[in-house]
Write a structure and sequence with these properties.
Number of strands: 7
Shape: globular
Order of helices and strands: HHEHEHEEHEHEE
CATH superfamily: Vaccinia Virus protein VP39
Largest sheet: 7 strands, mixed
Strand content: 25-35%
Radius of gyration: 16 Å
CATH architecture: 3-Layer(aba) Sandwich
Number of domains: 1
Bound molecules: S-adenosylmethionine
Length: about 210
C-alpha cells in the first residue's frame, strides 16, 4: 500500500478551471441526511469548491469549511455569492488544525479521504468538536472501489474499510447508519457511474 498524499497544489490545479470538479449541487447522501435536521453551526471539512457548505447555508446553517485549497476557497466564495449566502472558509490542513471541543451541531463531508495514518490520528480529534447530540454525516469510497472507474482515490491507503473506520471513530456515538452500499453516482465527470461507497451517520452521545 502506498501512502500517497494528494497535496494542495494538486487540488488547486483541479479547482482552478471554470467548471465545477464535483458539480454545484450538494452530495446527495449529505443532502438527504442533513435536510431533516434543525440548522445550527456546521463544519464541512475538505469541502473543496464548497458545494455542500453553500447548499447548507441556503438552508439556514452557519456553514464553516476548512480545506487545503486556495482555489477551492475562491470557487466557494463565487458559489456562495451566486446563492446570496456566506460561508466561512479557512484554508487549512486537517493535520495541523486546532479543534475546540463541543463547537458544532453538524460535521459533514463527502469524499474527504486522507492517508490512513492521518485519518486515525485526526478524524477523532475533528469529531471531538461536535456537541453532544451533534451529527456526523459522511460518504466515502469503499476499498472495493479500487476496481471501479467511477472516481475516488487510486490507493487503498485512502479508501475506507467500514469496520476499520468505525473502530477509529465509532466510540461515544450512536450509529444511525453505517453501511457499504452500491450506488450510481452522477455528480460530475469525475464521479459518475456505479460505485461502492461507505455511508455513515452518527450522533454524539457524550
Ligand atoms: C475529492 S475532494 C472532495 C471535495 C468536496 N468534499 C466535494 O465532495 O465536492 C477532497 C477535498 O479534500 C481536501 N483535502 C485533502 N486533504 C486535506 C487535508 N489534509 N486537510 C484539508 N483538506 C484536505 C482537498 O483539498 C479537496 O478539496
Amino acid at each position: 500500500m502506498s501512502n500517497v498524499k494528494f497535496g494542495a497544489d494538486a487540488w488547486d490545479a483541479r479547482f482552478s478551471g471554470d467548471g465545477w470538479a464535483y458539480g454545484r449541487e450538494p452530495n446527495r447522501w449529505l443532502e438527504e441526511r442533513i435536510s431533516p435536521l434543525t440548522s445550527g453551526k456546521g463544519l464541512f471539512p475538505g469541502d473543496g469548491e464548497g458545494r455542500n457548505a453553500v447548499w447548507a447555508a441556503t438552508k439556514g446553517w452557519d456553514a464553516h469549511v476548512f480545506d487545503l485549497s486556495v482555489e477551492g476557497q475562491k470557487k466557494c466564495v463565487k458559489l456562495a455569492n451566486e446563492n446570496s449566502v456566506t460561508v466561512t472558509y479557512d484554508v487549512d490542513d486537517l493535520e495541523t488544525r486546532d479543534f475546540s471541543p463541543q463547537e458544532y451541531d453538524l460535521i459533514a463531508c463527502s469524499w474527504f479521504h486522507v492517508p490512513w495514518s492521518i485519518f486515525t490520528t485526526n478524524y477523532p480529534r475533528m469529531l471531538n468538536s461536535l456537541k453532544v447530540g451533534g451529527h456526523f454525516i459522511t460518504e466515502g469510497y469503499h476499498t472495493s472501489q479500487i476496481e471501479m472507474n467511477s472516481g475516488g482515490p487510486t490507493s487503498l491507503d485512502l479508501l475506507w474499510n467500514l469496520d476499520e473506520v468505525m473502530e477509529v471513530i465509532g466510540d461515544g456515538f450512536e450509529i444511525v447508519h453505517a453501511a457499504v452500499e452500491s450506488t450510481i453516482l452522477d455528480e460530475s465527470d469525475l464521479h459518475r457511474g456505479k460505485a461502492n461507497v461507505v455511508r455513515i451517520h452518527l450522533v454524539k452521545l457524550n
